[in-house]
Amino acid sequence: MSEYSEQIFEFMRIEGRRVDAVFDEPAVTSDAGALIVRELLAKSKLLADIARILGDERRQGSVEHPVLNVLRQRVAQIMCGYFTADASDNLRFDPALVLAAGGLPGRDGLASQPTVSRLENRADLRTLLRIGYAFVDDYIRSFNGKRPEMVVLDMDPTAITVYGQQELALFNGFEDEYCLMPFHVYDGLTGRLITTVIRPGKTPTDREILALLKRLVRRLRAAWPKVAITLRADSHHTKPAVMEWMETHDVEYITGLGPNKRLDAQFADTIRTAKALRDQTLQEVRRYASGGYAADSWNGKHRRVICRVVAGPLGVDTRYVVTSFEKSGATFLYEDVYCGRGKAELMIKDHKLDLGSGHASCPKATANQFRLFLHSAAYTVMHGLREALHGTALENARFSTIQLRLLKIGARVEINRRRIRFHLPSAFPLKDLFARLAASFVPLRT
Question: What pLDDT digit, counting tens, does each position of 169-210 carry?
Fold first, then answer.
């Protein structure tokens, strides 16, 4: 911004007075909420684990920005809405972000875009696998030594549109774009991220699903040998090999099942009943039924299928799911259990839109995977912040709302030899909430 540092911008006068603006104040930030981010990053062990896995082969006497500080910098920037490495140059001396990254405002700066980009391109496949396990371990650690009664794995691929020559990019007919389609895996009960894995822009195969599922189940069972695990996913994950593996390894499942003529014929009575009631009452009618079904590809094995029929003014909509749960009612399994996976769409929205993980501009798949991990780390920290906001007006807020209302605070920064003080606006509407969070960090500071 040096080209504008002495340029004065004039605006409409008021009561004869001149109104103008100039970019000339270095000790001001628009992201004073990064003070909260700094405390959360210091508390989190995930970034320290990632830094340890990455290592640092640089000549330490010449290192200005340790790996951990660069990781904290990128995650803090992402949480504050600066999604790309290019922002590192423009924000290099922002006092709040410098502090969040572990630097001293007025003396240190953030790592430059080339330094960040070199870090993003460093990790090989083995390193990325270890970082993936670090996310799972961090998820396990989030329970503070307690074993959950159940882990619900909400697994879903989501499209990331690309416009270059990225590795693994394929044309997807449904999306009508060239894209990547990484797996996102969340705990469906808590909303916590478990892991994310970059993959080609196509429907997942049984080998891809099992490669991820086996690793997750093995890691979770190593920590919690007796924990109940359930996979909840759409019809793309309903593969015979996947269901057989889960049945063999005591993993419950409830996944979508594409409609076909045999299923429609098997549940014809339910469909006819729903239509007849709609015609009689002129209101929307829902009906549920379940029964054994064996697809040709299931090698003669019968599994429980639930049918949901909605007959309304626009016609009849019939959906099916297949499940390993034999005793629970069809209505409960569909409405409460299966439809609960809709929350995963909100989690992906937080991750992909509000934290910018839809950016995959690196040509190398390994670099895009590492960048996805950075955004995933930002999700983990931001979700922890939202959990800390329980009981407040922001406890169910989208990440973008938390960013705008709590992190995007203008402040003047006073820096001297004894103190760094952020002068926040007295009219800030969430003063009480900010004070509550600051008080919660006291044990960490002491």
Answer: 999 998 999 999 999 999 999 999 999 999 999 999 999 999
Tokens of 299: 């090698």
User: Phi and psi at residue 83, in whole multiples of 5°?
Assistant: -85, -25
Look at the chain and count its residues.
Answer: 446
> CA separation (Å) from 132 to 105, 123, 143, 194?
33, 12, 18, 9
Which amino acid is located at 168 in the chain? Answer: L
Q: Amino acid identity, residue 59?
A: R
Q: Is 229 within 8 Å of 153 (Cβ atoms)?
A: yes
Asked if 262 and 281 touch (Cβ cutoff 8 Å), the reply is no
Q: How many CB atoms lie within 10 A of CB 331?
A: 15
Residue type, 145: G
Kindly state the average pLDDT of the residues 61-70: 90
The model's pLDDT over 260-296, given as tens digits with 9 standing for 90+, comes to 999 999 999 999 999 999 999 999 999 999 999 999 9
Which helix (H) or strand (E) is 229 found in, with range?
Answer: strand 228-233
32, 422 in Cβ contact below 8 A? yes
| Partner residues linked to 252 by β-bridges | 230
- Chain-centroid distance, C-alpha 237: 20
Looking at the DSSP assignment, which residues form a beta bridge with residue 311? Answer: 285, 316
Which has the higher per-residue pLDDT, 121 or 446?
Answer: 121
Q: Which of 296, 287, 363 is nearest to 331 (CA)?
A: 287
Rounded Cα gap, residues 321 and 336, in angstroms: 13
Q: Encoding tokens for residue 309?
A: 């029929």
Positive or negative, the CA dihedral 434, 435, 436, 440 is positive
CB 215 within 8 A of CB 156: no
